[in-house]
Amino acid sequence: MIGSLPTIARSSSEAIGSLADTIAECFEKKEPTLGAQQNQTTQARLDERAVIEQLFTENCQLRDQAEQAHETLDKLTAENNALRARLTEQAPPPPYEE
Question: CA–CA separation, 26 vs 90, rounded Å?
Answer without folding.
Answer: 95
